[in-house]
Amino acid sequence: MLLILLLCAVTAPAAESPLKKASLMPLWSPQAQFAGYYVALDKGIYARHGIDLKILKAGAGHSPAQTVKDGRADFAVLWLTTALQHRSAGVKLVNVAQMVQKSSMMLISKKTSGIKTVADMNGKKVGLWGGDLSIPPRALFAKQGVKVREVTQSGTVNLFLRGGIDVTSAMWYNEYHSILNAGVDPEELNVLSLSEQGANFPEDGIYTLEKSLRKDPLLATAFVAASLEGWRYAFDHPDEALDIVIKYMREAELPANRIHQKWMLDRMRDLIMPGTAQGAPGLLREQDYWAVAGELRKAGLIRDYPDYGIFTGRANAGEK
Length: 320
Fold this sequence. Notes:
Strand content: 15-25%
Helix content: 25-40%
Distance between the termini: 18 Å
Number of strands: 10
CATH architecture of the largest domain: 3-Layer(aba) Sandwich
Oligomer: single chain
Number of helices: 14
Low-confidence stretches: 1-15, 316-320
CATH topology of the largest domain: D-Maltodextrin-Binding Protein, domain 2
Shape: globular
Strand order of the largest sheet: 2-1-3-10-4
Mean pLDDT: 90
Number of domains: 2
């Protein structure tokens, strides 16, 4: 990983040379989950690090992993589970920074359903997002030998609120707050955090292709440094960060609820800056990598995975 390099050196100013063009595809449309990147773009932080960055349109119908694979984006925000699955399928993704150090995914049911444990979900209708975001709960169900009735979940929690499913997938920084905003009392809910159920899989990380990293390692180093600076600025200036995020949301013609975005930004601070005991921000811990890769292979969700050194840009070991 290039994080060690960026912690030991400051990227040189870009004034003496042309900016390098680069592009990023987030996991989803503009929202505070990605505040650090939009702040770094808006405040000229990427430019100061020598990068002319374009943040690509994301959301429904857009696959960050496929976009990087096809060469239409230089960097993408992906979950570790997603990157491992694509890597197992032959896409040589490399983690250059790990922003979110733990899982913030939840499985939520109403107390009236009688569902108190993952085992209680056996045979129940469980809302799962399509594609890569279903990997963590499927790994958890496989580990516990639970077979649920999967129901494709949209970008809202309406199906759960209307009683159409027994359990909904939710992110702590997003859908959980939406459920509360809909008037549901927290005491009415059973909330099972994947992080407490043996599926503590780190989520948002920055990825690029192995060949892209070899071609221009300094670009990746500068991109990570600028992104971390953007996140620090966003957390130090939350009101300004929210103004910037909401500006991009409105440009994308998305509804922008400031209270909800503030909740999201506050939770992202908890996830990205969890404290020194959890390691430096941006670092994918080796023990987390081995644990997640092993769990996915046990669950039959991946065939194989590379050594930690290869996966994080230190090509010093063979395939595992």
